[in-house]
């Protein structure tokens, strides 16, 4: 049985998307990117909303860029090998292999995916993750916390949800980024 993981870069004040600008720095260097790649190498299925998919589909062709560093090449290969499910009512087609579109988020279908999977699954994007959290589907939370306070945007955790979590692992990087892995009790 696979676990469902929710992971995003988040600002120090808890926003996964800033209302204005970006979330700050800290996740761009090779050490952090290699760490992220190592943590998610065994994810067999990524669950995306349309906007997150449109951001992540870069990895379908990242290996073809000139002078690709080894950690980028490895992440691209891992991403390409995984299944992708895109939840969207507007997306007409996908531009990556091993990808399908679902028109609605069905918690029971995700429960079946978890139960039948030999690998972990990842839900990405605060809107889609909010649905998975509300349905009690998320097992692990991986936060990559930047050094910026952005003052508003879309929160990492949805409003109105109470979660009791155990800290599993933490790490800080020279860029100031902090990694925190929590598991649902």
Structure, explained:
This protein has 185 residues and is an alpha/beta fold. The protein has a single domain (4-159), classed as Dihydrofolate Reductase, subunit A, CATH 3.40.430.10. The chain has five helices and ten strands; from the N terminus they run ββαβααββαβαββββ. It has helices spanning 30-40, 50-56, 70-81, 107-116, 126-134, and strands spanning 4-10, 15-18, 43-49, 83-87, 99-102, 120-124, 140-145, 153-155, 165-172, 178-184. The strands form two sheets. It has an eight-stranded mixed β-sheet, sandwiched between helices. A two-stranded antiparallel sheet has the order 2-8. The longest helix is centred in the middle third of the chain and has 12 residues, at 70-81. It is globular and about 40 Å long. The mean pLDDT is 95.
Summed up, the domain count is 1
Query: Helix tally?
Result: 5
Instruction: Choose one word for the global shape.
Output: globular
- CATH level-four homologous superfamily name: Dihydrofolate Reductase, subunit A
How do the SSEs run, as a string of H and E?
EEHEHHEEHEHEEEE
Instruction: Report the end-to-end length measured between terminal Cα atoms.
Output: 17 Å
What's the CATH architecture name?
3-Layer(aba) Sandwich
Describe the largest sheet.
8 strands, mixed
Mean pLDDT: 95
CATH class: Alpha Beta
Question: What structural class is derived from the secondary structure elements?
Answer: alpha/beta
Look up the CATH topology. Answer: Dihydrofolate Reductase, subunit A
Strand-residue proportion: 25-35%
Order of strands across the main sheet: 5-4-3-6-1-7-10-9
The share of residues in helices is 25-40%
Instruction: List segments where confidence is low: pLDDT < 50 over at least 5 consecutive residues.
Output: none
Radius of gyration: 16 Å
Protein name: Deaminase
Domain Bacterial bifunctional deaminase-reductase C-terminal: 3-178
Organism: Occultella glacieicola
InterPro entries: DHFR-like_dom_sf (IPR024072), RibDG_C (IPR002734)
